[in-house]
Amino acid sequence: MKIIIKNEEQIKGIKRSSQLASQTLDYLTPLIKEGVSTQEINDLAYQFIINHGARPAALGYMGFPKSICTSLNDVVCHGIPSSAVFFKKGDILNVDVTTILDGFYGDTSRMFLIEPVTDEARKLVVETKKAMLKAIDSLAPGKYLNHCVGRVIEDYVKQFGYASVRSLTGHGVGVEFHEDPSVFHFNLGFDDVLLEPGMILTVEPMINASDNYQVRTDPDDGWTVRTVDGALSAQWEHTVLITRKGAEILTLS
After folding, report:
1. Do 37 and 86 meet the contact criterion of CB atoms below 8 Å apart?
2. What are the chain's domains?
3. Longest Cα pair distance anywhere in the chain, in angstroms?
4. 0.90 exceeded by the pTM?
């Protein structure tokens, strides 16, 4: 495992890229509505990122064909934008944006509701965000990563009958798209990575609205990950810096 402790210059660059990723989601927010296609959102995100002197990290990454991920309803993550998929009332959507600005990466995602949505869907989205923020609040140097993230998130979401996806993780980020360490969103049951100031990682729980954490990847496109039982799934993501006293969210506009 090779964990990169970022220096002051790198932290500044990663923060700028992270803020741009967040600003991209701000820009998209009023445009995500009934009747709009996921491809339109992809194209708007691409142009916004390019216009700000950056490029989308997802485009071409390991063959991924689009600039962002758009994951609807039972899609857990890595949904591919399409001109044939239009938002409809009742949908819940995750938009995942990663930018490369001056060589530095910023990674974030948010949930969107195409109103009106069911109470069940709204609760899943709200509680998933709370789980992420509780985990971030617990991060601090000298603590173990899984104690702060996996244990906190799983303990929180289980009370609602939800399951935290186990086969997909957060990750270190900043100098590269995906770095060590892996960030698990369930309780591993043992001490893993000891947190140090200068570490930058993503906290991005994927929470299923059932007690089944298992998922499947679409064999046709090789990317789209869905719940195996058709349950709704929600995800929120921030890029986070471990500071001397705690943690700082970098993906805030």
Report:
1. yes
2. 8-249 (3.90.230.10)
3. 49
4. yes
